[in-house]
Amino acid sequence: MFLARVIGSVVSTKKDETMTGRKLLLLRPMFPDEANPAALKPGGNTIVAVDALGAGAGDLVLFCQGSSARMATGMKPLPIDAAVVGLVDTVEVLGKKAT
Amino acid sequence: MFLARVIGSVVSTKKDETMTGRKLLLLRPMFPDEANPAALKPGGNTIVAVDALGAGAGDLVLFCQGSSARMATGMKPLPIDAAVVGLVDTVEVLGKKAT
Amino acid sequence: MFLARVIGSVVSTKKDETMTGRKLLLLRPMFPDEANPAALKPGGNTIVAVDALGAGAGDLVLFCQGSSARMATGMKPLPIDAAVVGLVDTVEVLGKKAT
Amino acid sequence: MFLARVIGSVVSTKKDETMTGRKLLLLRPMFPDEANPAALKPGGNTIVAVDALGAGAGDLVLFCQGSSARMATGMKPLPIDAAVVGLVDTVEVLGKKAT
Amino acid sequence: MFLARVIGSVVSTKKDETMTGRKLLLLRPMFPDEANPAALKPGGNTIVAVDALGAGAGDLVLFCQGSSARMATGMKPLPIDAAVVGLVDTVEVLGKKAT
């Protein structure tokens, strides 16, 4: 899994019928940095993930990719390759809290 | 999933028999950019995806990759690793519409 | 899926028994380029894919990766992560033929 | 699989219910280098993996990704795409121990 | 699949119980190069793969990744995402042997 910040959302009316009513979030992956353990660095590419945990703009989340995204609760029949699987409380890097 | 612009198409007459009649689209991945939330930036690599939603040249779409592509309606037996799963109405980045 | 040019082949006598008799092709991924829609650009990494469609040196093909490669006709039990799934007739980028 | 050093951990209270009680480790991938076989080089991106082997900060581990992460003992129903599958005793590169 | 040179090995005593007795090889991916068809170029990242074919240091092998690694003979229940599936006899690039 990777850490990510929720930076936006996507609306798609015409989509695969199994995805009706699903919330699509835009995620910016965030990476810990041992050289500066107190801060997370943004990654290069954004990802669109389905969310069933109620994440909102600015939240730090944990997401998984690939077939494992369909293992998130209620997602089995969906053609999705990314899902939010946790809201992050704390990240600890080399013994320090990172935000 | 990722956002992408439809930039073309591929025709293949001799292909795996399960793919007969399938439309193959060329997709250019597009990425939101917090530094300029109103515009999407093109990614480096193009992808060929199967489409069952009627996407056309210039459309902004949502596509998924890997085994999840086979979860798109009607795609189960196909040897495909990318499928269009939604036509995008709006993308919102940091509270602004991106196009 | 991605487009690729067949640039060579691999011979392996001692291999997983399920792969006996399979043809292994070396593929160079090829990418459309909106800045020059009439030409395809070569990608950085080559891939070894199983072929059951009779592709030969110089052919432009479509290949898929991951578990989907095993969905190609006759490939189910093979430990392969890439398969040729189509021979490409034409690629159209922004309304122009690309070769 | 890849080698990685445990550099921290992630706490997530609100997460997919199947993940309750699971330990989430931050991993820095580490790569052997033939030019300097005695040392491992850190990779660019960190990964969050589930651990069931008791790995701790500073440990060198082996992790797997994708659907295979769910094959780790007890992980089948979890929406995870990375798991620690071994604690590493020794790495040998070109006949030399690497650390 | 990709080509790779065996450059070392990994020993892990405490590992997922299904992996007991498995040989873990360090692989350096190798890529053909049309500009110099007689030589293979090393890739950037090393990979740890399970081997059941008896590959040794210096051997050129073919490996597969992802869920397909578990399709290698005897690997079904293992949490592995890379396996050696062939020992390479010859690689031909643009009609020339590459080594």
UniProtKB/TrEMBL annotation, chains A, B, C, D, E:
Keyword Iron carried by entry: no
Protein name: Ethanolamine utilization protein EutN
UniProt entry tagged with the keyword Membrane: no
Source organism superkingdom: Bacteria
Annotated localization: Bacterial microcompartment
UniProt keyword annotations, A-Z: Bacterial microcompartment
Coiled-coil features, chain-numbered ranges: none
Xref: PANTHER family: BACTERIAL MICROCOMPARTMENT SHELL VERTEX PROTEIN EUTN (PTHR36539:SF1), ETHANOLAMINE UTILIZATION PROTEIN EUTN (PTHR36539)
Gene3D superfamilies per the UniProt record, alphabetical: EutN/Ccml
GO cellular component, one term: bacterial microcompartment
PROSITE patterns, sorted: BMV
